[in-house]
Specification:
Strand 37 and strand 38 form a beta hairpin. The longest helix has 16 residues. The chain is 21% helix and 28% strand. The chain contains 16 helices and 40 strands. The protein has 751 residues and is an alpha/beta fold. Strands 3-2-4-5-11-10-9-7 form an eight-stranded mixed beta sheet. Strands 15, 16, 19, 20, 21, 22, 25 and 26 form an eight-stranded mixed beta sheet that branches. Strands 34-35-40-37-38 form a five-stranded antiparallel beta sheet, with no helix packed on it. The N terminus and C terminus are likely disordered. Helix 3 packs parallel to helix 4, helix 7 packs parallel to helix 8 and helix 13 runs parallel beside helix 14.
Length: 751
Amino acid sequence: MTPACAVWLAGAALAAMPAAAAPVAGETVAKEIVAKEIVAREILALYDGAQEQAPDRTRIHKYAEVVLNHLGYAVVYRDVRDPLPEPGAVARYASILTWFAAPPAARGPYLAWARIAARSARRVVILGSTGGAFWSDDHPAINAVLSELGLRHERRAIELTLGTEAVPVSKRLTAFERGLDPVLPTYDVVTAVRSDVEPWLHLTIPRREGGGTSVVVATGPRGGYAASGFEIVEDGGLGRSRWLIDPFAFFARALRSEPWPIPDVTTVSGRRLYFHHVDSDGLNDVIVARKQEPVLVPQVFLNEIVLAYPDLPVTLAVTPGDLDPLLGGNATPTDLVRQIWSSPNVEAGVASYTRPHRWAFFAEADRAAETAAVTADAPQDRFGLRRLLDLAGYGTAIDSHVAGGRDLPREYFRFPFDLRIETETALATARTLLPADKSIRLYQWTGDAQPFEGAIAATRRLGLLNINGGESRLDPGYPSVSHLAPIARPVGIERQTYAVASDELPRSKAWRPMVAALRGLRTTALNTEIPRRLKGSSLHYHLASLGKQPALREVQAHLAEARTAPVAPITAADYAELAQDFPGVAIDALGDGAWSVAGRGAVQTVRFDAAGAIDVDLSRSVGVIGRTRHGDALYVALDRAVEPARVVLWTGAGPAPAVVSLADARWRLWQVVRSGADWRYEASGFGPGDFAWDGVPAGAYRVIARRNGEDLWSAEVAPSVDGRLSFSIPVAGIAPLGVEIRRVATAEATR
């Protein structure tokens, strides 16, 4: 047993399960798995709605949730002004988490609840304010909560901090993205009262203030604490923020001390996932090249993107209003849309009907307010071009109901806003342009991509996934992981899936030229891959941008890189499905380093962090296709045909038993069946079918790819000296293929 596993697995109460033979593809293994402990994956995040108006406005959502998602947790938000769960019911959550900027206005009821709930909670994590005013009658309740963390509030604070000395345990942990200012912020005096508390940063209090020390950052077996001004630094004027504490290490230590299989939405088949989606703004735009006839931008998209890169998937979501002359659209590009959607590598999507720019504006569907906004935007005191065209007979009444930019609530406003038109009618209209063998699975949010709850619910009732928004950046302009969006945005009981990367038209972050924005995607992609994989790889832009040659060349450069990069290309809807299914993955600890992983949906990768001394015992695992390493993490690929899967860590001496296992692949694969030295599986994907398998015994192997009983390709291959067998299937894999690998008998083997 490795030293790390010896520590983590000490005290396991369940005896080792017997090795299980690989199941027949699709066979359920539920009867073999008896849950020992449910691994709680939900964080109960409490916020004060009087200070932060909605969950997506909270610091927990803006800064912490992306880290919590990376660590495998889904966040459930509750306003402390509303009824909170019964104190005894909080044990279902991995932790209670608060990040108050100041004591809540309704802190009395909250503290009365918290002092009881903290006893039942698995963990408690407090960032910022403790949730009460220590100089008041709140003090006993504050200490009742802090005592669960092994801390005590000494009922005083240091306002004149000059002379205070900061003593960090590790600058790496407490100066993650920047260090403390020379003049420290005001701080409460908190001390550790248990030996199992791990102080990360304590302060030496000046003698004039009474002396002593104060703990401002600490973790322990029951959670964590980071005081206001010592967890993160915000610059509200510039819209920038940087972590002081290392949030990955802080939350990992505060929430769970043992390794566990973390559901991961960044990786498919051992590779970083990649997808490419486009919004149809600019569908009617025309460009005129020198000495050429005018060309519609969608024609450029078809020729220069779709047909030029048939090995990469791309999703184009159309706003049908662009094709509706009654609204001010133009039906001319209709056949082009049909051609684009008919291409095998193109996924069809829908993006509203009238292209709302400000979704929240229509939560109440106020026509009078929209009319007032349009009137206020119209030029009053000058003789504009539109008016000139109207007088000359070229303009129309319809044209005057088309927004000239993103300032108005929506693009096409001739008729009152109707949510059914934006969803049901948009979908029905888009379906008329589809080839018979395709369907629409995805709704792409337009404009500010901040839909209200009813809009998300409407798409869900239609069976559609959804995506966009978030505006993740990690580059010199926004050099902090706090500027990365989490997986999804909570909106009431609904969830809006965020896009993985920012697009070229920023909404909330600082403006930059379009080409610079597209180039910046590379920096963000690199910084979210190293030192840890925080996001998949993604390309997202608006169709209109392709009308500009520099932007077109930049998009082509991205695609050329994706073509040869070690990624797993998927569709945008595939990613949205991963994001949708992430909260529902159920992990049960079985003891002896074994876990059941069920309810996975599209999520077929789990990850172990700090995994240098960890490996998977493939001989005892069930439904595990393979594993690979990136940084200090171990990524484990699961078989969607096996439910639930069982992941078992290797706990013996020396290396784990050699079993044929996937290292990585460009395609998705499932129904993996091993039989002696042979194995077979189903697979599909875009581009060449690149596969790498580990643990393959020496010898010659015949690889056969077939579809519907017909052999399409075969080749003889051999593994390297370290047991890795790599091959590439040069057959289109958008429609699934069956792949079989058989060991070839040699003359030596038959003697």
